[in-house]
Each structure stands twice: as structure tokens, then as C-alpha cells.
Amino acid sequence: MDTKTLLEWSARYHTPNYARTPIVLTRGEGARVWDSDGREYLDFGAGLAVASLGHCHPRVTGAIQEAAATLLHVSNLYHSAPQIQLARLLVEHSFADRVFFCNSGTEANEAALKLARKYGKERFASDRYEIIATRNSFHGRTLGALSVTGQERYHHGFEPLLPGVKHVAYNDLPAMARAMDSRTAAVIVEPIQGEGGVHVPDDGYLPGLRKLCDQAGVLLILDEIQTGVGRTGRLWAYEHAGIAPDIVTVAKALANGVPIGAMLCREEVAAALTPGSHGSTFGGTPFVTSVALATLTTVLAEKLPEHAAQMGDTLAEGLRALGRELRTVKAVRGRGLLLGVELTHAAGPVVDACRDRGLLVLSAGERVLRLAPPLIVQPADCRRALDVIGEVLRRQAA
Ligand SMILES: Cc1ncc(COP(=O)(O)O)c(C=O)c1O
């Protein structure tokens, strides 16, 4: 079917909630994708920070083929080996003792919020159910995750939201301390705010939150849905801060594009999830967990967090050089391969112009260009991306 007809049908048959770019992607390999007219693009979004091993990685494709020919689905009434092995691998490579599997980031956050409420009520008091989140955060679209998301534009029209949620400024420890009281069950934050504009907190922020939470018996939930699985140059972004959270939520890159979510937590906290208290039909099927196993073992074996740190330095250096040259670049932020370029003007036209030149990039809010390429990118890919971004920004500045 030709591209024009596909786009017409999309306009006619989809709900109108996505402002999609008018291209149809048909094929991918490594850090490149192709559209239905045969045009090639360098993918510096990796979907939305998902395809960390690149597109159609042979180990991922192999795991998908093997699972499809063996056993796709097992309900959580029964055990399946890949789910058990993945849980073990995640525990061995994180702070966590226990893992719950679901299907997306927002669901992982729902699990975390429900667990925090149950733990707070059972361990402390029946009114200990409040959650403190941060302004400008993004935690997902289901009603619980939406309620802790600190951006009103996502709330609009969906109120009333979950009761018992407070928002305080990100990177502001005194504000967090003031907001905490005997009703606070948990604090939820992103170690780096991704969708909200790629904001990296001060070095003392996460250790400070850990301390505040310890003093008040409050759970510290870190949303690593975008930052996790190596993106920031460590397997988990909390490692940069040298702390251990109580709960971490993961999704996006965990199975390199096959939908999965996971909530990792400490033993004592996990105990509140008694049999029947939470669950998921599709969570952790042998299919998705074997793909996640292939992904995570590859990320570890190929030391991709370290590679992401190196490539991130190259990219950030190039972007900072552009910042010195162009007044329209206000700031370059981020860590590893999660980078944001704050502009003095809208990022949308830059995203479009990059795409016209064969480079896919993301935005984060109105004025921030967001780069989240696959972790396997090579120096030549980074140089090409920098050339395109430089050319586009220079033209826009002229
Ligand atoms: C930090 C963070 N949390 C949660 C989500 C929601 O994940 P999902 O779209 O898989 O529900 C996202 C998605 O962008 C995210 O970046």
C-alpha cells in the first residue's frame, strides 16, 4: 500500500491523540530505520528511549523467534523459567530483592504506588497513603501515574485525579522536607527528569532524599523507566548517587521494544504484596521475559553502560561546542545517552528539519531537543548527528 493511502487511513481511523510525523517506518537495523519511500534515517530517539540495542539486534530477534516457536504465553497461575531467570538477573544486578512484572512503564508505577499505599497503611497507620512527587515530572498516563505526573497539561480534562498527591519543586530538598508528614507513604522521583526537559539534579539531591525518607520511614521510589538499563552510563541512574532506593520502576529498554514493565523492590517492602493483592494477565510472559533476558545479558556482556557514557561524552562535547557558537543554545544537560539541548526557541521545527535531513530526534517540552540514541551508537553516528543538528541550528539562528 502506498504512503499517501496509509496516511489518509491513519487520519481517518485512529483516535486523534497522537500528533504523528507524516512518515511510515517500515524497517530497522542497528541505529538506522527506513520509511515506506525507502528513505534512511539515523534514529537518535530509539523509539522513545526504547531500542537500546538498536533495531533488529540478532540476539533479540533470536530470542523472539525461539520463544514464538516454544511457548508464548503462561499465565501467572503457573511458573515459567524465563520469568524466574529474569527476576534473578535483575536482583543480582540491582539493589532489589524482589521483582514484579507488568507490561509498560505506567503499569510499573501503578504497582509501585499501590505497594507504597499498602505498605504505609499496614506498617504504620491507615491514613498513611500520601505520595509526594515533583513538578515537571512524567510518570505515565494511567490515572495513578498521571496523578503523580507533575505537568498540568497532561491532567487537563481528566480530573479529578488520585487524592493524596502533593507536588514539590524538583531538586529542592527543603521543599520536600516541608511537604513530608505522618501521612506520607512515599516519594516518587525520576533520577533525571526526562520528558520534563532532561533535568539532572544536584549531586546531593538523591542522597538527601534518601536521608529524608529514612528519617520519616517514607519509601523512596525511583522511576527509572527512561534512565534505566544503561542509558545514563551506569546500569541504573541511582548508581551515580551511591544510594539504594526502596522501589525502582523499569520499562522502555528492558526488552528492547517488546512491551514490558517491572517493579523492583526490597524484601521487607515486597512482603506487603500478599497473594491476590496485585497482578497482571500478561505480566512477565515467557515471550517477553526471554526477550528481556537476551537484552539485559547483552547490555551487561557488551558493557553498554560504559559505552553509553563514552558516546554521551562525545555527543555532549559537540553539543556544548554548538552552544558556545550559537546564542540560540541556552544549555546542554543530561548524562550518558540521555541528553537535552535547551533552545531559546521552539524545538519542534528543529526536530522536523533534522528529520528532513535523515536524523530522528525527540523533543522534551516546548524548547528542549532530546537525544536518546541506541546505546550501540558509534562515534561516526554521533558525528553525523552533530553535523545535522549543527546545520539545522545554524540555519534557524540565521
Ligand atoms: C520517566 C517515565 N516514567 C513513566 C513513563 C511511562 O511509560 P509508558 O509509556 O511505558 O507507560 C515514561 C514514558 O515516557 C517515562 O519517561
Q: Could you tell me which ligands this complex binds, including any ions or cofactors?
A: pyridoxal-5'-phosphate
Task: Indicate the mean pLDDT.
Answer: 98
Tally of contiguous helical segments: 14
Instruction: Note the beta-strand portion.
Output: 15-25%
Order of helices and strands: HEEEHHHEHEHHEHEHEEEHHHEEHEEEH
Q: What would your notes on this structure say?
A:
The protein contains 14 helices and 15 strands. β7, α9 and β8 form a beta-alpha-beta unit. The two termini are 40 Å apart. The model has no long low-confidence stretch (mean pLDDT 98). The structure holds pyridoxal-5'-phosphate (PLP). Pyridoxal-5'-phosphate binds next to α5. The site of pyridoxal-5'-phosphate (PLP) has 15 residues, from α5.
Write the layout of secondary structure elements.
Elements: H1 3-13, E1 25-29, E2 32-35, E3 40-43, H2 46-49, H3 58-70, H4 81-92, E4 98-102, H5 105-123, E5 130-134, H6 143-148, H7 152-155, E6 165-168, H8 173-179, E7 184-189, H9 205-216, E8 219-223, E9 247-250, E10 261-265, H10 267-270, H11 286-301, H12 304-325, E11 329-335, E12 338-343, H13 348-356, E13 359-360, E14 362-363, E15 368-371, H14 379-397
Parallel strand pairs: 3-13, 5-6, 5-7, 7-8, 8-9
Antiparallel strand pairs: 1-2, 2-3, 4-10, 9-10, 11-12, 12-15, 14-15
Pyridoxal-5'-phosphate is lined by residues 48, 104-106, 109, 138-140, 190, 194-195, 223, 225-226, 251.
